[in-house]
Write a structure and sequence with these properties.
Largest sheet: none
Low-confidence stretches: none
Strand content: under 5%
CATH class of the largest domain: Mainly Alpha
CATH architecture of the largest domain: Up-down Bundle
Order of helices and strands: HHHHHHHHHHHHHHHHHHHHHH
Mean pLDDT: 86
Number of strands: 0
CATH topology of the largest domain: Growth Hormone, Chain: A
Radius of gyration: 22 Å
Helix content: over 70%
Distance between the termini: 31 Å
Length: 480
Amino acid sequence: MENKQRNNILLVLFLGVLMGALDIAIVGPALPAIQAAYPGVDARMLAWIFSIYVLFNLVGTPLMAKLSDQLGRRPVYVSSIALFALGSLLVAIAPSFEFVLIGRAVQGFGAGGIFPVASAVIGDTFPPEKRGSALGLIGAVFGIAFIIGPILGGLLLKAGWHWLFIINLPIALIIVVLAQRILPNNRPATTGTFDWKGMLVLALALAGFAIALNQIDTSNFFASLVSLNVLPFLLLAALLVPLLITLEKRANNPILRLDLFQNRQMVLSYILSLGAGIGESGLVFMPSLAVAAFKISNSDSSFMLIPLVLAMAIASPAIGKLLDRFGSKTVVFAGTFLLVIGMLVLGTLAAQGMLLFLLSGVLVGAGLSSLLGAPIRYIMLNEASAKDRSVAQGIVTLSGSIGQLIGGALVGAVAASVAASTGNNTAGYSSAYLVVGVVSIVLIIAASLLKNRAAELATVQAHTAAQESAVSASPAAAAH
């Protein structure tokens, strides 16, 4: 395949991933405007705009990846883009808040197919020596989206929040036309069975837990735990966990490889990834805090995130270099410490002045950079054997999504409970960030338990030696 053809393929994939990533980056600034558009929507309900997207994205990602193996990359990629566009349209024309949530669910499900299919297409069409740079470019889209997202969101909000979603329609149309002409329709020769039962039980358990968490009244915590709004959903989630474990032990191609939870370093990485998801979901509600605390317009609240995303843009590449020099434990520990401080400042002092709000954003952005992207993936590459790397990375992604789901529900529950009891939305969101900060202390503990640099290097050397031994013992090597 010629370089020009590969570059055209990469452009189509880049545009699709950028559209999905931008939607994540600009939905936060839209929340105050959406809340104002539908009277009666409190922070608890508003959180579901984010949570329902994450839940359906979580279900859509492995399903669409498997369908692309069975039906071909192009039709599944095009269908995913079309579903995302349909969801955007439903949100933009929604006559009620319930229709907004339906649209967000469709968006999330469609987005679930965009990134994994893009990665698979690169694996199918690019030679091994060029896959890393191609995947790196696709992965960098998320950083680009978070940099331009607040600016784009602020500009579009001046015309109305609907335009944040309407803009996806012409972009999706262009991508579909280009994809039909340019993308190959590769499919693997053989495919394993999809773990339908495991995925369904996992989704139901997570949905039950998220609903229960979202409905907790933090001002009357213990009484709300045994209420009909919370207890049945908690019981559902609890009962489904042993069923999920049983199903995953029997599945030929499980959603969760349980044996990968026996390695302490991996388990700590999953905890850190889950915590990163909780922290990342908190970013979505920062514009709502800014609107409530400083009485600024919805469009101006978007620009309040610029220091945060600039901190992430500067810290992310620097952290990549620091990992090679100091190892993951030092880098992740420092980052989680900054994240906790940033969240605590956001929860206690940020509403008292705009400068403190911007400072807390810088701390949170720099802290999250040590968890999102390179650091946790770095640990996985060092720890997992070559045959388990893709599965281990998949569990990291799943952990992050579960964290996002928990974080969205948690922020919504705390913000709504405190606002209802005090009559103050600023106090509601501040309390929510304070809770996230306290929860994030667990991440500092997890980071402190990671292997030190010497032990990390020893693990890498052991894996390298084992791989070289396996290659030298192979029939092909023996024949030479």
